[in-house]
Amino acid sequence: MHLYKTAIAQKLKGSDCENRTKLCRDLLNVRVTDVVFFSDEAHFHLSGTVNKQNFRYWSESNPREFHRAGYDLKVTVWCAVFNFGVLGPYFFEEDNVTVTVNSDCYCAMLQNFFQPRLDGIFNDQHGADNVWFRQDGATAYTSHRSLSLLREMSPGHVISLRGDIGWPPRSPDLTPCNFFLWGYLKAKVYEQRPLTLEALKEAIRQEVSAITPEMILKVMDNYRERLHQCINIQGCHLSDVLFKTH
User: Can you give the three-state secondary structure of the chain, one letter per residue?
Assistant: First the structure.
């Protein structure tokens, strides 16, 4: 019997493998002095029951079971992993009530949260010319308004669907938010057993701030290892070993 941890990956389609290989080569060509912000959002449910990090299967072979979780209170969190830290968290909400992420609230986050913190990191009101911003292909992220704003903030340095470097769909194994951050945070946050949404948000803040630069350095080393591995297997999904690294 072996202990199996669930790893989520969508089935690759059509030209996905070719696009994933191109992405990896493009990312490896980014200058080592450049800073890449890998951004993403995730839901943290108050019950914690939807946290896949809590599930393990004892079996002679991988059972590949599917579980559907019910509805309960949640917060929607945005973070960005970059070369030497984690920027965030930011909670998408209005009057302390979680809202669906659309183009308007996403642009508001970029203008009122991300940009000021970017300026603070680089001590430059206009940002830094060596900053890249990565996002996936969600509709709110890739609207005309969202992409126009990002191109103003990081000219020529947007990694996204229809970005300067195209981000292919079905590729969570290539971004640190998916292969490291969300799983790690949920495991740590739910250890605190928060009973209210405010307690849940405070636990998320605490655990994000507790992530050390040394931990991020290891994550970024693993990220580069994943790029090489993906090229070596011609764009296919990475092995289970890499999914379990962190």
Answer: CEEEECCCCCCCCCCHHHHHHHHHHHHHCCCCCCEEEEEEEEEEECCCCCCHHHCEEEECCCCCCCCCCCCCCEEEEEEEEECCEEEEEEECEECCEECCCCHHHHHHHHHHHHHHHHHHHHCCCCCCCCEEEECCCCHHHHCHHHHHHHHHHCCCCEECCCCCECCCCCCHHHCHHHHHHHHHHHHHHHHHCCCCHHHHHHHHHHHHHCCCHHHHHHHHHHHHHHHHHHHHCCCCCCCHHHHCCC
The yes-or-no verdict on residue 10 having pLDDT over 80 is no
State pTM to two decimals: 0.85
- Per-residue pLDDT of 65-91, as tens digits, reads 544 444 579 999 999 999 999 999 999
- 12-71 tens-digit pLDDT: 998 999 999 999 999 999 998 899 999 999 999 998 754 444 445 455 666 555 444 445
Range of the domain at 57: 2-7+15-243
pLDDT at 192: 94
Quote the number of domains for the chain: 1
- Residue 107: CATH number of its domain: 3.30.420.10
